Amino acid sequence: MTRVKMRRRDFLRITLAAGATAGLAAFARRRACADNAAVQPSQAFEARTLADALRQTVGKGDVPLSARVKLKAPATAENGAEVPVSVEVDSPMTADDYVKTVYLYVDKNPKPLASEFHFTPASGRAYFRLRIKMGDTSNVRAVAKTNKGLLMAAVREVRVTISGCG
Amino acid sequence: MAQNIGNPMISMPASAKKGDLVEIHCLIMHPMATGLHKDEQGRFVVAEAPAHFVRTVAASFNGKPLMTAQWGIAVSTNPFLGFTMRAEQSGTLKIVWQDNWGGRWSAESKLAVS
Question: Which residues of A touch B94 (CB under 8 A)?
Fold first, then answer.
């Protein structure tokens, strides 16, 4: 446990002291090894409010809703520890026009940003399925960002019977 | 760490026609501990067990990046993930999971494209 805390502190110190160098190193590492892509954790995962999480991921809080973003989640989830969610975004997924990133948030979770997915044209479809934890009844929100910077969102409310943060 | 951890698995078709969309399902055993729990008043407080969760899942095909996911603490225990790829050529899909304690697991699956 101590070891982990130390490492996090070291990480923070290094990042703060030499953000640019760390950024370059991360970039070099990303280029060097596809397997290790995006190991650097995004600070947005530590955001404590939806507004902060949105600001740190997409730079603004009001992303227009779009029918191109299809967010599927149950209207009622008996178990908040395992809520099945899927997101699919309409996109040609060509080198010129594709969905680059999809962010998934749970508005009322203590840390609202749940995940971010980075796609490539080789993905064929901007789509993922996973199970998430929800602490309370809340909106689940997906925001898609295309390679051209276009932002689109979808929101669904999920009623949670038993909290997933026991 | 004594509990079940690792054992990554990939489930996907072994073959596909060129241009087909291939759906990939993958699973890994991991506690995905949030480091938080709810107290009697329903407030979130720091739990005794520290956060321990898979932070990145990176998929590549024949060494080329395909999809990368970054996860926070809100992904469920023993995380399941489904995503797709366009079948263009035969090769090997590789998925690498990494957690916030330095744990690293990988799995591979072959795809024959005709």
Answer: 35
CA gap A109, B73 in Å, rounded? 10
Q: What residue segments make up the domains of chain A, in order of their start? A: 1-40, 45-162
Residue B6 to residues B19, B66, B106, B110: CA-CA distances in angstroms?
A: 32, 22, 9, 20
Overall domain count for chain B: 1
The pLDDT-based confidence of A97 (bands split at 50, 70, 90) is very high
The verdict on a CB contact (< 8 Å) between A38 and B60 is no
Please determine, for residue A38, whether its predicted confidence score (pLDDT) is greater than 70: no
Instruction: Name the residue range of residue B10's domain.
Output: 6-113
Taking CA atoms, what residue in A is nearest to B47? A166
Beta bridge partners of A139: A157
Residue A141 vs residue A16, higher pLDDT: A141
Answer yes or no: is pLDDT of A100 > 90: yes
Task: Please state which CATH class domain A45-162 belongs to.
Answer: mainly beta
Chain B residues with CB-CB distance to A38 below 8 A: 56, 58, 68, 70
User: In terms of CA atoms, which chain A residue is nearest residue B44?
Assistant: A110
ipTM here = 0.94
B79 vs A41, A120, A130: nearest CB: A130
In the predicted structure, residue A166 carries a pLDDT above the cut 60: no
CATH number at residue B47: 2.60.40.10
The residue of chain B with its CA nearest to that of A2 is: B50
pLDDT of residue B3: 64
Let me know how long chain B is: 114
| CA–CA separation, A17 and A12 (whole Å) | 8
